[in-house]
Design a protein that fits this description.
Serine/threonine protein phosphatase 2A regulatory subunit, mainly alpha, protein phosphatase regulator activity, 0% strand, elongated, PP2A_B56, ARM-like, single chain
Length: 390
């Protein structure tokens, strides 16, 4: 899981200069510009390549290309046929911007970085179509919460390049975090987190990688990011039970938890009790349970005394009528018990065995597998806990 993260943000947007031409937006992708005329297609000039201009003029050309790429096209209707040439010009310029940032062609000046973040914001912070779990009055709103609702954004050919540009900017060794934090600030991070509810798994994968890199590079943002993610989870657990990106956020947290220093702060233990354990009780828990189980076991591996907290939490939210979810809980319980010490096991073994006995008496054929759990896992702990003559 962590390897996938390693393989692979808008600040409060500064007010535009009165002498600066506004970015052109096509169609309804950016609804903030709903008053623009979509009947006319903007003309996009072809700019020279970086290699064709002197080194001293490249950052000026970089800004011109950024302003060109601030044009947002509507990919959802027939207007795309009329914008084919302009869309291709933008795609080529985005690819060239990525190569420029990735090639370490020198540190970008502060005005260039500001324009870069503004262009990225114009493209990724948009009003996406309503996902199935929103209250739209349609039948889709009543979709099964345990099923993932996938929406493939037609604007992905441009969005992917914009996300790649942001990623390359964040991970670049030429990007000074002390300067970049003025543009990638708390407002930027919040809007990035809002995008995790996207129905497009490709977008969520990029967002996961980018947020993880932001967390690693901008140490000043770390407490804020953890708190903002917690707030998303609180709303999901206690209000909506609807969000597309819980699994990706948990993957990021798995990496963060793995890096916690010991002894563990009380703040982190509270996160386990107030967020991770209650995440087990939601209806769509099966969608993200693999990532959730990884996070909880990370806590137990860091501090074996937390095993009692996790086991009692699992027993508290143990499903009553959902056999598939019971199987997931048994699997997680097995992983936790593998790292549980005998002294902690003694504190919760009575309610644990009562729950296992209920699973053994279940009429569901899959829960019959609890016998394997009972025979192979529990004795490994009890043999160190109880005297042989008992």
């Amino acid at each position: 899981m962590l390897n996938r993260i390693i393989k692979r943000g808008a600040p409060k947007l500064p007010k535009a200069d009165a002498n600066e031409p506004p970015a052109v937006v096509v169609g309804h992708v950016s609804r903030a510009a709903a008053g623009c005329d979509t009947s006319s297609v903007p003309s996009i000039e072809a700019l020279p390549l970086f290699r064709d201009v002197p080194a001293g003029e490249r950052q000026s050309l970089f800004i011109r290309k950024l302003r060109l790429c601030a044009v947002v096209f509507d990919f959802s209707d027939m207007i795309t046929l009329r914008c084919a040439r302009e869309r291709e010009v933008k795609r080529r310029n985005l690819a060239e911007l990525i190569d420029f940032v990735q090639s370490s062609s020198g540190r970008l000046a502060e005005p260039v970085q500001e324009e870069l973040v503004r262009t990225i914001a114009a493209n990724i912070f948009r009003c996406p179509p309503p996902v199935a779990h929103e209250n739209t009055g349609s039948e889709a709103a009543a979709a099964d919460p345990e099923e993932e609702n996938i929406f493939l954004d037609p604007a992905w050919p441009h969005l992917q390049l914009v996300y790649e540009l942001l990623l390359r900017y964040v991970v670049s060794s030429d990007t000074d975090a002390k300067v970049a934090k003025r543009f990638i600030d708390h407002a930027f991070v919040l809007r990035v987190l809002d995008l995790f509810d996207s129905g497009d798994p490709r977008e969520r994968e990029y967002l996961k990688t980018i947020l993880h890199r932001i967390y690693g590079k901008f140490m000043v943002h770390r407490p804020f990011i953890r708190k903002a993610i917690s707030n998303i989870f609180y709303r999901f657990i206690f209000e909506t039970e609807r969000h597309s990106g819980i699994g990706e956020l948990l993957e990021i947290l798995g990496s963060i938890i793995n890096g916690f220093a010991l002894p563990m702060k009380e703040e982190h233990k509270l996160f386990l009790v107030r967020v991770l354990i209650p995440l087990h009780k939601t209806k769509p828990a099966g969608v993200y349970h693999h990532q959730l189980a990884y996070c909880t076991t990370q806590f137990v591996e860091k501090d074996c005394k937390l095993a009692v907290t996790v086991i009692r939490g699992l027993l508290k939210y143990w499903p009553v009528t959902n056999c598939q979810k019971e199987l997931l809980f048994l699997g997680e319980l097995e992983e936790v018990l593998e790292t549980t010490q005998p002294s902690e096991f003694q504190q919760c073994m009575v309610p644990l065995f009562k729950q296992i006995s209920r699973c053994l008496n279940s009429s569901h054929f899959q829960l019959f597998g609890a016998r394997k759990f009972n025979i192979y896992i529990v004795p490994q702990v009890t043999s160190q806990t109880l005297p042989l003559n008992e």
